[in-house]
Amino acid sequence: MNDLLTALALVMVIEGLMPLVSPARWREVFSRMLALSDGQIRFIGLASIALGLLGLLWLR
Description:
Elements: H1 2-21, H2 23-34, H3 38-59
Helix pairs in contact: 1-2
């Protein structure tokens, strides 16, 4: 359980870096994402999950 909470805390830190460092660029990225279709967003999500799982397999 401790590992899960650590992982979630790291996700929060990483997610907060972009708006802290470059809020204008962060806003621009989100405005571009609004123009994507549902299928494109789902593909990005799937690719992100796949890369994350591959990273976990590689690290373990």
